[in-house]
Amino acid sequence: MAAVLAALATACAMGAWRLTLARWPWRAPRAAILLWQSLGVTWGLASVGALLSYALQPYGGGVLYGLRAFAESAVSFGMGYGLLSPYDLPRAGALAAGLTLLAVLVVVLLLAGAQTLRARRRHRVLLSLIAHDDPGIPGVRVVDHPKAAAYCLPGLRSEVVVSAGTLSLLDRDELTAVLAHEAAHVRERHDLVLLPFTALKWALPWLSVVRDAHSSVALLVEMAADDHARRYCSPRRLATALLRFGTAGTVPAPHGALGMAGEHVMARVNRLIKPGAVLPRRCRYGLVTFSALLFVSAPLLWIYPG
């Protein structure tokens, strides 16, 4: 079982590397985002599971049962009864490595989430002091800043924020496109999509595939929001708004927020102006099905009895 989980982890890493180089995800960003999430979760569980499966092999019964049996044997050892099975140094090292990797992934994810929540809370307090409502754009907070800025703060009390510079830079149709883009971020909770990849980037900053994965998912999130905005405006209007943002010296979105302009602006503009063929429906359904199967594969291998 350890070999199967190790092969699955390797396949996920190779799949992520190949996916960072592919361009077909631009044709179906939502399905590609789901695939990225499945790859990330499966890689983490499979990597941890491979180490634990090897370490707990003397107990039999798979990873979950092996952990329970090891815990029981450790309690027995503490009470003077000895371990249930002999333990050599390589298996002890694999057990320590597996539990450490699991702890690191969980802790980093929790810390990333907590830091993001704190940053949003501080920024909401700041907005309550400096931002104001505009009757011309209801439901949007306006900040009196001369540079262009447009971003959203997702959460239970989500807010869309634009600057005075944005209002003077864009016409009505372009502003509608920008607001629809930010509304898509809020409605589809793209912040939660990015959070695991941000945490993984913090945990493994030296791995180029992790950095590339974060960049790829961030771009797909923006493209998914662009697709939503195209329902309310012309793609060329949205592309023009992006170009205006790109040349006007925009203010970066604060930590914990999702902004209108960022990296890969020209890739998004070219996609809007010269859209490629949409991925066929059967291919998108196939991707969703494959992602779901991949997502449950590692948990099933954890509970597999042998």
Structure characterization notes:
This protein has 306 residues and is mainly alpha-helical. The protein has two domains: 1-87 and 282-306, no CATH class; 118-275, no CATH class. The protein has helices at 2-21, 29-55, 62-78, 89-130, 164-169, 172-187, 190-203, 208-229, 235-247, 265-273, 281-303; strands at residues 131-133, 140-143, 150-153, 159-163, 258-259. Helix 1 (2-21) crosses helix 8 (208-229), helix 2 (29-55) runs antiparallel to helix 4 and helix 4 packs across helix 7. The radius of gyration is 23 Å and the shape is elongated. The mean pLDDT is 85.
Largest beta-sheet details: 5 strands, mixed
Class from secondary-structure proportions: mainly alpha
Overall average residue pLDDT: 85
Beta-strand segment tally: 5
Q: Beta-strand percentage?
A: 5-15%
Note the run of SSEs as H and E. Answer: HHHHEEEEHHHHHEHH
Keywords:
306 residues; transmembrane; 5-stranded mixed beta sheet; Beta-lactam_resp_regulator; M56 family metallopeptidase; mainly alpha; 2 domains; hydrolase; transmembrane helix
